[in-house]
Amino acid sequence: MKSISCLVTLSLGFLAEQALASCGHGTSLLERNVYTKRDTEGVTKRSVAISTFGYLGTQGPTHWHKLAEKNYACGNGTHQSPIDLNESSATSVRAGKVKIQIPNVESAEFENLGSTIEVVMEGKGGVTTINNKKYDLKQFHFHSPSEHTFNGEHFPLEMHMVHQAADSTISVLAIHFQLCATESTPLLKALKPTLQAISQPGSIAETGPLDFSSLIRKFTSMQLLTYSGSLTTPPCTEGPVFYVASKRFPIDVETYNAIKAIMKFNSRFVQNVAGEKNLLSGL
Amino acid sequence: MKSISCLVTLSLGFLAEQALASCGHGTSLLERNVYTKRDTEGVTKRSVAISTFGYLGTQGPTHWHKLAEKNYACGNGTHQSPIDLNESSATSVRAGKVKIQIPNVESAEFENLGSTIEVVMEGKGGVTTINNKKYDLKQFHFHSPSEHTFNGEHFPLEMHMVHQAADSTISVLAIHFQLCATESTPLLKALKPTLQAISQPGSIAETGPLDFSSLIRKFTSMQLLTYSGSLTTPPCTEGPVFYVASKRFPIDVETYNAIKAIMKFNSRFVQNVAGEKNLLSGL
Fold it and tell me: What is the value of ipTM here, to two decimals?
């Protein structure tokens, strides 16, 4: 590897295309709209609608509750996510209490929503069982830097595996990644070859094979930290329960730099302790 | 290196000691108070006062202006730092316009202020000349993740070299670091052996030799981005002029993880475009 590659930043731009059709899917709280479009050269391709919120200025987390009435909880909710995970803010769950079954897949849709990059897992048969209740894996996506902190420390990357049960309740399995010079997490490395194809907000590409087995084995063999919080993006709806891996998973430098170059910055600031006043309330 | 080292976090705690004497120094806007104390075993040692602000909850950036009247600018100023650096927010300065002379030193005081880790350079003879005006290098310190973003992208670490002129005006030279598997920045690697000794907030240690030559050569050979902003910490005083390296410097995984384990999270959120309403004003 030439050292210059450490300093390369992908160039991003917005797609300017003609809409042909659209369809919505995703969880009831996190809708995605996929369009089939024809570009300027007449080639038909699919793209995903770009998020209407952002992470900077008056589109960013301090103003989400001002962007739309439905985002009221973002600036007023008292059980918001992310939080600082520590002895008093989260409960420790013994290893194995959360059971995960995600079949390996030949490929999955990888989307750049502008606000995150997301792998669509709906219909792939991933199921997590918590207290005998089944949650279907809908998608997993990333935040950089991490949203949750551990005793105040942040990490370079956080993954959210978003699940929904038949009664619409949401559970999120969260994993934090720490840079490591000697090892990485196979699932992240498997996504890397497809990153360039989704460098532009709105773009969609197909990943190669994804093997979840080592990630699941590791996640289910360690204690988890759990608490009831909210979506970390608008509309910041409260109710989702987080199960956060208590130890970090490794990520290599190249994969981290490539993910960060696309997501740029997409981390909501740490919210107040559950039940206390929203940090933005009455400022 | 054993791979487990990627997942190690330093344990931090607060010093509980008896104050014997104190003296203040630093720039007029960023005071530091150093105490000579006797610990529980009767050993006399020096420590630095821990910052009265933080980065989480009601001690954090959304509430700095509520912590003290003198912090009014943090929640009301319209030329605040950090900002997103882009074509419209900052001006490009040609390479060589900023002249830096920092003699190599045998050692310097390295302090953990709770809010950052800082190398004291007062009296070491470091001088930066901008438009024929001389600024003395007072200290340099770090933020992780980066405070300024580049076209929306954040970086894992940012260094601020804080200078003050005879008329008290402040200029800050800023460098962003990008993780790199094949190289690092010698100045950061030179600080690494002393990090463990300042793992506790309030602690002070002496660095080994610091050689600034390659850092200066690189900084002064690239275009810089400049704008007039503010301190990025309370009291958020406006006036400081930033000169930010337009390209990133490399940092290795081990040094990055060690710095982050101590600083944990110390990045103010990106402020609004200069002249626009403060993001926290009227929420």
Answer: 0.90
